[in-house]
TrEMBL record:
Keywords: DNA-binding, Transcription, Transcription regulation
Domain annotation HTH tetR-type: ranges: 1-61
Keyword Cell membrane carried by entry: no
Organism ancestry: Bacteria, Pseudomonadati, Myxococcota, Myxococcia, Myxococcales
Ranges annotated as spanning the membrane: none
Pfam families: TetR_C_13, TetR_N
GO MF annotation list: DNA binding
Signal peptide boundaries: none
Domain of life: Bacteria
Protein name (database record): Transcriptional regulator, TetR family
Species, as recorded: Anaeromyxobacter dehalogenans (strain ATCC BAA-258 / DSM 21875 / 2CP-1)
Length: 201
């Protein structure tokens, strides 16, 4: 692994667990075993390192999430339900510290901040994936169904983080099944399921 990769990997792990502002550059350097000159050879500022770390998290979260959903069911409708199964497993894990993309927008609140923009792009791409599943499942209003499911997914993730109670995912899944029942009423799958678009690595 190159020194730059070590920096990004270490920063991603530390920023996710402790927050971007709480982790200083010296801590990242010490954990990565990289000299300060190496840091500034690749990044002009800490914010640039934060952005690179967030993009790395985006790659991993989306790829892992979509792969888990694809494994969970052979049908688009089944995968829509499995979204909540995957989130349930995530929030029950010992390394769950909430959604990193929600967390980072609290620290970089300006909507035009590059870090905030990158976090918003992650959410847009996740919604796009859910909308594609909804279209493949034959939903008449694929975007509307995807938005409703995304709201439930985001809500149960935040509540699980804040309260420490992963059972909110069960509640969200029950609500989602009612939404799916209505959204897919009379639906005929529009096309055969296809592999999701992966994030670049």
């Amino acid at each position: 692994m190159s020194p730059r990769e070590k920096l990004v990997e270490t920063a991603a792990a530390l920023f996710y667990r402790h927050g971007c502002h709480a982790v200083g550059i010296d801590t990242v350097l010490a954990e990565a075993g990289v000299a300060k000159m190496t840091l500034y050879r690749h990044f002009r500022s800490k914010d640039e390192l934060v952005l690179a770390a967030l993009r790395r998290m985006d790659e991993r979260f989306r790829n892992a999430f979509m792969a888990a959903v694809e494994r969970a069911s052979d049908t688009p409708a089944g995968r829509l339900d499995a979204l909540f199964d995957v989130v349930r497993e995530w929030v029950r894990g010992k390394d769950f510290y909430g959604c990193p993309f929600i967390n980072v927008t609290a620290e970089f609140a300006a909507h035009d901040d590059p870090v905030h923009v990158a976090a918003a792009e992650h959410k847009r791409l996740a919604l796009e994936y859910i909308e594609r599943l909804a279209a493949e499942a034959g939903a008449a209003d694929a975007r509307g169904l995807a938005r409703a499911l995304k709201v439930l997914l985001e809500g149960c993730t935040v509540l699980a983080q804040v309260t420490g109670q992963p059972g909110f995912v069960d509640d969200a899944q029950q609500a989602a099944r009612l939404v799916l029942q209505e959204g897919l009423r009379g639906a005929v799958p529009a096309r055969a399921p296809r592999r999701p678009r992966r994030a670049r690595t």
